[in-house]
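CHAIN AND CONFORMATION:
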Amino acid sequence: MLLRPLLPLVAALLCLPGLTAAQDVHFTQFHNAPQVLNPALTAAYAPDHRIAGNYRTQWSSVPIPYETLSADYSRKWGLPFEGGQHLGLGGHFLYDRAGDGQLTWLQIALRAALHWPLEDGHQISAGLQARVGQRTLQQGAFQFGDQFTDNFFDPQSVTAENLNGLTSGFASLGAGINWYYQDRYSRTQLWAGLGSDHLNRPVITFLENDAVSVPIRLNFHAMGAIEMNDLWDLSVRLLAQNQGSYREFVGLAGARYHFTDWVDFPLSVQLSGGYRWSDAAVAMLEVYYEQWQFGLSYDVNTSPFQNATNRRGGLELSLAYFITEVKPPKGFKACPIF
């Protein structure tokens, strides 16, 4: 019966309209950026609070490198219902700049997810997201043909080219569902979900009478950490994403070592490798220390664009801090005094 509230959302996500060309920002460490992956992942973790940031710089060998920055906060809210349901609330800021025209995305989003615990460590979540943002162009960064005189470019020369506007605002809606499993007797954790964005097809335009609808983005993600023994875990992360003519398939696999027998504080290190289909090979290092989580990855470009990038892909960093609140005891029993 707990699954019944999810059926309309599942139907909506599976019956999405056709997609057209365009794409959102993306992170290689998509598992460390749940805020841009699926709103149902909001507070889908054991602690009570998460504060995180992500930074990516891509194609540093080309004249204008691409940069993406995200900052996020999310937390749990207990609900006064039987069954242990809880609400996850979060908000994040996203900034992206790309290309000679310094095309930027500036976005702020709020999201909420409702989590239903099931039996034997299973949990189902459904989430919604509301996003507002602005795309901006720097017209002074362009070079137009009528600004060249005798094959020399004159930046002071007046051009007949004129954009109708240098900014375009938009509002976007997203939704998602997710399944989560935490084994009660080991470190094994599993996630699998379906996320979407731009369900309302917001319009962005810089030219008069030439508005462009942002295509719906749909992704399927599956992630897991499986305890192999007291010291080793196996990690697998998969992402399949579709937005217009853009397709992205990423597979990552790694091993995590826990130093619990060597030191008196919780420390683990994970090495991973993977591949983004037809685009890049990935190497990744992640460190987990107490409430901190740090990720460092690098993409080695393998697409035809490597002729311009010299195989230099993208450097990416992630940092997260988790807070677990001290819970009051469920009951109190005074010791008798004799």
